[in-house]
């Protein structure tokens, strides 16, 4: 009897539903393929152009693979040491910005999540409100404040003889030392940790900073790692603010330095593409190294 029932043909409604599922799946597969191609193709084209000769890069030919591969563009990129200096500047600013943003953002997030003080809600609301203001709106006021703010230690220590903090590493690091997003992100993470741990440490006589540094901050490794990756990528890829705050070529970052290959009369596509590939590697490596912490953060959030 069961064999007879299984041998019966499917009803027209089931056939139509099956066809709709097949068509729908096919549509999504095609959409995913097209989006993947549109995302990957520019990256492949950039990598290919970095190995092309100048004449081939300017020929306008649509060949994806270079006819005569060459590493001359990479050699020209590092020939005079200027681009290497840009890399050093970018590493100093990206790493320094990551350390300050993660530490001070975590410190402020801990205070807003675990401490009770007058005006706590207003302070947090101010941080949230600042996230709604476009960064370009605050650039001019920030520039004027840094211009008249004296640099401790003198410009010879952190910069190249600018006015106030302008044209120094501090001009890029100080305004973003504790970003509103970092405070909000870490506050939400600290709120997920039990208060009883801190209460037990206070009974034992630990100070608030000791509780933060020795107990809560180590427990927030996953969240801090995600914030560090996001901060490093944002700092490494930053262009507009370093262009405004750093006016000495010796202080330029990679992203600002790449614009030197584009001038009024021509564009050096080969070195420009080679520099783009080189400048993409650090952010990619940081993401690969920290991806387990990112997965751990999202997994832990899902379980909670």
Q: Care to give the gist of this entry?
A:
With 304 residues, the protein is mainly α. The chain is built from 16 helices and no strands.
How would you describe what is shown here?
The protein is mainly α and 304 residues long. The chain has two domains: 12-72; 78-303, MetI-like (MetI-like fold). It is 70% helix and 0% strand. The protein has helices at residues 2-6, 12-49, 54-58, 72-77, 82-114, 120-131, 139-148, 155-158, 169-173, 180-191, 195-203, 208-219, 221-237, 240-245, 254-258, 269-303. Helix 11 packs antiparallel against helix 12 (208-219). It is globular.
SSE blueprint and pairings:
Blueprint: H1 2-6, H2 12-49, H3 54-58, H4 72-77, H5 82-114, H6 120-131, H7 139-148, H8 155-158, H9 169-173, H10 180-191, H11 195-203, H12 208-219, H13 221-237, H14 240-245, H15 254-258, H16 269-303
Transmembrane segments: 26-45, 91-112, 124-149, 169-190, 211-232, 269-290
Organism: Cryobacterium cheniae
Pfam families: BPD_transp_1
The overall pLDDT average reads 82
Structural class: mainly alpha
User: What is the domain total for the residues?
Assistant: 2
CATH overall fold name of the largest domain: MetI-like fold
Distance between the termini: 50 Å
The geometry reads as globular
Number of continuous helical runs: 16
Number of strands: 0
- What's the gyration radius in Å? 27 Å
Low-confidence stretches: 1-6, 153-158
Q: Helix amount, in percent? A: over 70%
CATH class of the largest domain: Mainly Alpha
What's the name of the CATH homologous superfamily of the largest domain?
MetI-like
The ordered H/E elements are HHHHHHHHHHHHHHHH
Tell me the major beta sheet: none
Percent strand: under 5%
Q: Indicate the CATH architecture of the largest domain.
A: Orthogonal Bundle
């Amino acid at each position: 009897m069961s064999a007879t029932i299984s041998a019966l043909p499917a009803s027209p409604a089931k056939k139509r539903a099956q066809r709709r599922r097949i068509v729908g799946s096919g549509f999504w597969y095609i959409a995913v393929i097209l989006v993947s191609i549109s995302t990957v193709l520019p990256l492949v084209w950039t990598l290919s152009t970095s190995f092309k000769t100048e004449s081939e890069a300017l020929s306008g030919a649509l060949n994806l693979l270079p006819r005569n591969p060459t590493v001359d563009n990479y050699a020209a990129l590092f020939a005079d040491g200027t681009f290497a200096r840009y890399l050093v500047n970018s590493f100093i600013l990206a790493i320094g910005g990551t350390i300050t943003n993660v530490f001070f953002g975590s410190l402020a997030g801990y205070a807003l999540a675990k401490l009770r003080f007058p005006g706590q809600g207003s302070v947090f609301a101010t941080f949230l409100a600042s996230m709604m203001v476009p960064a370009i709106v605050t650039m001019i006021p920030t520039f004027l404040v840094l211009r008249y703010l004296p640099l401790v230690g003198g410009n010879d220590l952190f910069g190249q003889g600018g006015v106030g903090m302008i044209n120094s590493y501090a001009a890029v690091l100080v305004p973003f030392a504790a970003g509103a997003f970092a405070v909000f992100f870490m506050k939400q993470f600290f709120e997920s940790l039990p208060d009883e741990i801190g209460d037990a440490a206070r009974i034992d006589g630990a100070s608030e900073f000791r509780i933060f540094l020795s107990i809560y901050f180590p427990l927030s490794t996953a969240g801090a790692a995600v914030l560090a990756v996001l901060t490093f990528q944002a700092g490494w890829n930053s262009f507009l603010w370093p262009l405004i705050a750093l006016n000495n070529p010796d202080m330029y970052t990679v992203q600002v330095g790449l614009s030197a290959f584009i001038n009024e009369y021509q564009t050096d596509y080969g070195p420009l593409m080679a520099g783009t590939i080189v400048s993409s590697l650090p952010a990619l490596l940081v993401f690969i190294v920290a991806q387990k912490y990112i997965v751990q953060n999202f997994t832990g959030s899902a379980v909670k």
